[in-house]
């Protein structure tokens, strides 16, 4: 670790030194807390909608949510790919290259924001029809997603700023802003729905407004407290070669997660065809699943920064040793989380409806009881995908996404056709199992069977930076 003497005591973590597992856990804890707060405000969102507006409004929010999730996950993965290069430069102690990575990432993110917003505005109704959104909740769902889509550039900005800070080894500051955003979002949603009578639109407006406030404050704080990110005129010099280095990681990551989002849309389309009770049960259950799996995701995100920094420093063996330790850690967490969800899931699902619907509760609980048995495979995906992507090896993560799409589509369409909506229960679990097998194979081939390739890639990257 090191301190920048201009940084007013602000500690930035160099993850190329020290106890690797301890660094991973300490780095993951703020990410986990931040993600939990993010999930809590999403749960609070549907709780407010369900209690203040009603079950139909809750179904309207859930029926088209995968569309927004698709655009959100593309933005998140794209900015994560861009800032992986920032982390590599930081690990190599190339601080000028790190600042140039910031400016190239800003340019690429602006283009992405405009493209995503235009696509959403043009294709939203068509996508909702593909999702089989019921006619009775179609207009409410449309307005809800349209408002969220208008704030795409704000969401991309917040993810990018947080990614820059994490690239320098600081996972605490993004936590503070995520907690602030979450609390602000809940307050805005409650006020806009209860006192301003906005309906489901109030939930969308509250989300956009809270992110706008956080963007402004995060940008101000980042450039005030982090001297490493204070850009100079020369940092804005553009290089197509350097931009390609960013896009070579960011684009495959976006494709991979786009495939994941498409597979979730397939599930939602089938789910919507079974009516509002099934929609409500799955909407609440999926929110709890996302909350329960946050520790596994946090470990994966910590491995992304760890792997990028250590790859930049040429410490390949350190990455391999740490992957083994995090896999064992993920196994222990998976068992604990599965037991927790098994006992708490049904009770918590019913609490999100003013008058609990027994059918919706039963549907949601049945799904959770199956998915918990496969959490370990999801943890494997997070670890291996983030490791491979951060060292510039996106091929197997992309293939894993394709496999997950195929398996989810098969389960959601074929199984549901033969055994009803219970077939959807197996869509994500089987996809996790299949995806984990692919990325595990990819990790082995790149770090063991083809270990010389990884080292050669680092040497080539080092020589390119030296020549530049």
Structural write-up:
With about 475 residues, this protein is mainly α. It has one domain. The chain has helices at about 20-50, 55-65, 65-90, 95-130, 140-150, 150-165, 170-195, 200-225, 240-270, 275-290, 295-310, 315-350, 360-370, 375-390, 395-420, 425-450, 450-465; strands at about 1-5, 10. A two-stranded antiparallel sheet has the order 1-2. The longest helix is centred in the N-terminal third of the chain and has 36 residues, at about 95-130. The radius of gyration is 22 Å and the shape is globular. The model is unreliable at about 1-10 (pLDDT under 50).
Please mark out the parts with pLDDT under 50 across 5 or more consecutive residues, or reply none: 1-11
Record field, number of beta strands: 2
* SSE order: EEHHHHHHHHHHHHHHHHH
The overall pLDDT average reads 81
Percent helix range: over 70%
Give the strand content: under 5%
Task: Specify the biggest β-sheet.
Answer: 2 strands, antiparallel
Q: C-alpha Rg, in Å? A: 22 Å
Quaternary structure type: single chain
> How many H/I helical runs?
17
Q: What is the total number of structural domains? A: 1
Spatial sequence of strands, sheet with the most strands: 1-2
Span of the ends, CA to CA: 27 Å
Structural class: mainly alpha
Spell out the blueprint of helices and strands.
Blueprint: E1 2-3, E2 11-12, H1 20-52, H2 55-63, H3 65-91, H4 95-130, H5 138-150, H6 152-167, H7 172-195, H8 200-225, H9 240-272, H10 276-292, H11 294-312, H12 316-350, H13 358-371, H14 375-390, H15 395-419, H16 427-449, H17 451-467
Antiparallel strand pairs: 1-2
